[in-house]
Design a protein that fits this description.
Blueprint: H1 2-36, H2 38-72, H3 74-90, H4 105-115, H5 118-133, H6 144-171, H7 173-179, H8 184-187, H9 192-213, H10 216-233, H11 245-272, H12 281-300, H13 306-311, H14 317-321, H15 323-346, H16 351-373, H17 380-400
Family: Belongs to the UbiA prenyltransferase family.
Subcellular location: Plastid, Chloroplast membrane
Organism: Vicia faba (Broad bean)
């Protein structure tokens, strides 16, 4: 009984598909001709469209029954495929264009966090706070005036920091696709225009804040940082100093070791507290120590990026000398700096300063050597991790500098 019911139904269904497919072909041909000869083909196109919709509705109604039959026989599976193909073809006009994703503030902020290079932001803020404390002579100096002066300097400097690191990314998009593909411009999360707007806005806001504050040392620090940061990255004749190892190191040394220490100290000393210029022992130590540290950062930052630098002709010390020699040069320079710092701490006139700075630098020197021995120079992730550890040592030093007496 089941076979008698199935056979006629299958025949009827095959006839329906065949007829429908023929109508579809005619409808498609007529639709194509309609563009060229609208007067003769338009009525036919309307009738065929109505027939297609009618037959589609019939097939849609019979679909459950056809699906049951398709599970029972191989022939039914073929009919089901025809039905499925027909439904796709008979669907009304459908847009296959991908929709643009909506703006997501969370994703934008996450990308901005990476775009701003947070380890440099933290270093800038911490260094300004530390150097500002060197201008404090007595406990009463830590007042609302102090915090206002520090806040003015930090905010203006952070905008300039974002300008410098952002300009470097705009200039190095192709290199970063190899060396740092996680950065927003290299990954495509930010368009070039978005990056350019952020960079330009940061520079404008930095100078605007410096002008509003009216501090000569602060404006000087911002201007020199702007010039050196631009010369370091921008790809125009006579500039893009990052291509040359010595000039690249001098740019970073000038900003991190000299400008940050002297200019921001003078901002607090002369502009905030209205005192005469005095180059104290802690200030001289901070400038000398951070000169070593800045050279290390300038050399080490290129060790993980050797692959992209070779391709694009960046003649860093790591490209010219190799990763291993530059790595151990950096470690030795830092150990030498810690040795000098230990001597400075021990010769302090204050007992508590002797203990804290002497012991503190000894601990940091030991941690540096311990971590250096475990670095795998053939593993980029291991090198990058150690580079971030050097930045942590950088932060720790700025916690010790105000305690030097």
């Amino acid at each position: 009984m089941d076979s008698l019911l199935v056979a006629p139904f299958s025949h009827s269904y095959s006839y329906s598909i065949t007829t429908t497919s023929r109508n579809l072909w005619r409808s498609k041909a007529c639709a194509n001709n309609y563009c060229a000869i609208p007067s003769s083909c338009a009525p036919k196109a309307s009738r065929h469209k109505w027939n297609i919709e009618k037959e589609y509705n019939v097939l849609k109604f019979l679909k459950p029954s056809l699906s049951l039959y398709g599970k029972g026989t191989e022939e039914g599976s073929t009919h089901q495929e025809c039905n499925r193909k027909f439904v796709v073809k008979a669907a009304p006009e459908q847009s296959f264009e991908s929709e643009q994703p909506d703006f997501d503030p969370k994703n934008f902020l996450d990308a901005f966090y990476r775009f701003s290079r947070p380890h440099t932001v933290i270093g800038t803020a911490l260094s300004i706070l530390s150097v500002s404390l060197l201008a404090v002579e007595k406990l009463s100096d830590i007042s609302p005036l102090f915090f206002t002066g520090v806040l003015e300097a930090v905010v203006a400097a952070l905008f300039m920091n974002i300008y410098i690191v952002g300009l470097n990314q705009l200039s190095d998009v192709e290199i970063d696709k190899i060396n740092k593909p996680y950065l927003p411009l290299a990954s495509g999360e930010y368009s070039f225009a978005t990056g350019a707007i952020i960079v330009a806005s940061s520079a404008i806001l930095s100078f605007w804040l410096g002008w509003i504050v009216g501090s000569g040392p602060l404006l000087c620090a911002l201007f020199v940082s702007f010039v050196l940061g631009t010369a370091y990255s921008v790809n125009v004749p006579l500039l893009r100093w990052k291509r040359f190892a010595v000039l690249a190191a001098m740019c970073i040394l000038s900003v991190r070791a000299v400008i940050v220490q002297l200019a921001f100290f003078l901002h607090m000393q002369t502009f905030v507290y209205k005192r005469p210029v005095v180059f104290s022992r802690p200030l001289i130590f901070a400038t000398a120590f951070m000169s070593f540290f800045s050279v290390v950062i300038a050399l080490f930052k290129d060790i993980p990026d050797i692959e992209g630098d070779k391709i694009f002709g960046i003649q860093s010390f790591s490209v010219r000398l190799g990763q291993k020699p530059v790595f151990w040069i950096c470690v030795c320079l830092l150990e030498l700096a810690y040795g000098v710092a230990l001597v400075v701490g021990v010769t302090s006139s204050s007992l508590w300063s002797k203990i804290v700075t002497g012991l503190g630098h000894a601990v940091l020197a030991s941690l540096l050597y311990y971590h250096a021995k475990s670095v795998d120079l053939k593993n980029k992730a291991s090198i990058t991790s150690f580079y971030m550890f050097i930045w942590k040592l950088f932060y720790a030093e700025y916690l010790l500098i105000p305690l030097v007496r």
